[in-house]
Design a protein that fits this description.
single chain; 274 residues; alpha/beta; Rossmann fold; 11 helices; 12 strands; globular; binds 2'-monophosphoadenosine-5'-diphosphate
Length: 274
């Protein structure tokens, strides 16, 4: 039996074991996927022991998506560009890192290509997820401008600097400023990559007391809950609200493809689990 896992800290809440074990069963593979909690201080030892255990592959979640890079043998170009790895393949003694969040976000945003191309896109947050979103928006789409809004403005400036060679102008902004309403009103597409509004703090929104327009598209990468406070407010204003479940399922499908070469319908499996 081949072993797979998700590593993170904390990780016990992850639904990935259920989803991937259902996927392995669906394609008839004798594999098992488990959650392994690794403290950031023990990441080096943790990866060494996964390596020697002969694990076939694993997902990487918060807070290890960046820290794992120097511990891998090879890193896929896109994952390196984003600076974050969420999937590792262990083959012939070689650990290779990928970022399937890129694939997931591309799938989430693809239906809104018309609004993205030529439009002004706002990204809330300046962490790893924000970098994956920026990578997709600047390589697979042609927005006129991207505004990165973050609580810590320096981090928004840092990320804008990292992507300064992209053909799309990237403007760093503070999420806490007097002109926030005006700024948000100028955005055609808004994407939340912060953790604000995630379970159990479901009443919180990264854009409190902001009015949305009917023609805006508001996407949230959070999928627990399915409808965040941000999406609820957007929906109430008549805007298009897009939850993060599609991205989660598509990144999982891409990880599964990298490990097994097989296609699975993650949405169907997810609905079965629910
Ligand atoms: P990830 O890799 O998932 O993107 P991260 O690198 O920890 O995670 O980034 C988390 C993002 O959520 C950051 O943009 C963070 O803002 P700061 O850079 O100011 O820390 C944002 N974030 C987290 N909690 C927040 C809060 N309560 N209000 C506003 N932004 C918050």
């Amino acid at each position: 039996m081949q072993r797979y896992a998700i590593i993170g800290h904390p990780v016990s809440h992850s639904v990935s074991p259920k989803l991937h074990n259902a996927a392995f069963a669906a394609v008839g593979l004798d594999c098992h996927y488990e959650a392994i909690d690794i403290d950031p201080a023990d990441l080096g030892d943790g990866i060494a022991s996964l390596r020697s255990s002969g694990i076939a592959g694993f997902n990487v979640t918060i807070p290890h998506k960046k820290g794992i890079l120097p511990l891998l043998d090879r890193i896929d170009d896109a994952a390196r560009a984003v600076g974050a790895v969420n999937t590792v393949v262990h083959r012939d003694g070689v650990l290779t890192g990928y970022n399937t969040d890129i694939h997931g976000f591309r799938a989430l945003i693809a239906p809104f290509e018309k609004a993205v191309n030529g439009g002004t896109v706002g990204i809330l947050g300046a962490g790893g997820a924000s970098r994956a979103v920026l990578h997709v928006l600047t390589t697979s789409f042609t927005p006129r401008r991207i505004v990165v809004l973050n609580r810590t403005t320096e981090r928004a400036e840092e990320i804008a600097g990292e992507f300064s060679s992209s053909p799309v102008p990237i403007v760093p902004e503070s999420l806490f400023q007097d002109e926030l309403q005006e700024l948000v009103s100028g955005l055609g597409v808004i994407i939340n990559t912060t953790s604000v509004g995630m379970k159990p703090y479901t009443d919180a929104s990264p854009l409190e007391q902001i009015d949305f327009r009917r023609d805006q598209i508001v996407a949230d990468l959070i999928y627990t809950p399915a409808e965040t406070a941000l999406l609820k407010a957007a929906k109430e204003a008549g805007a298009t609200a897009v939850g993060g479940l599609e991205m989660f399922l598509q990144q999982a499908a891409e990880s599964f493809r990298l490990w097994t070469g097989k296609e699975v319908n993650m949405r169907k499996l997810w609905e079965g689990l629910e």
